């Protein structure tokens, strides 16, 4: 992955979710049972986004990376695994020109654990996150583990 891309990844910790991973998985399973067509469409779209992300990362297509991460987050919100607390942080990151999405199972009440951020302007990002009393930690991304199969 080009350094021009890898240097733009950050994480923030919003705190431990109140819900367990099992509870969040059950929530999504319930959606699949109640609304199989629309829920599976979201899950299928999420898979497509993952496949589209690798070429965007390799070619340092910043706009595409941002778009893919934002769409992925929208899908997670459609599944109901993102709290309004986390959505506010994510929307503020997006308004400042970046993209953010929850990692892991998420949460429906307040904290959702880790939020992954892609932003090309660290000073702007820090300013946005300061209003939420959060500080970004830059990720060190390695090639191992990120393979095209």
What does this structure look like?
The protein has about 150 residues and is α+β, with helices and mostly antiparallel strands. The chain has one domain (about 5-140): Alpha-Beta Plaits. The chain has helices at about 5, 20-35, 35-60, 60-80, 85-95, 120-130; strands at about 10-15, 100, 115-120, 135-140. A four-stranded antiparallel sheet has the order 2-3-1-4. Helix 3 runs antiparallel to helix 4 (about 60-80). The longest helix is centred in the N-terminal third of the chain and has 23 residues, at about 35-60. The chain starts with a helix and ends in an 11-residue tail after the last strand. The mean pLDDT is about 95.
Q: What is the structure about, briefly put?
A:
The protein is α+β, with helices and mostly antiparallel strands and 149 residues long. The chain has helices at residues 3-6, 21-34, 36-58, 62-78, 84-95, 122-130; strands spanning 9-13, 99-102, 114-118, 137-138. The chain has one domain: GHMP kinase, C-terminal domain (Alpha-Beta Plaits).
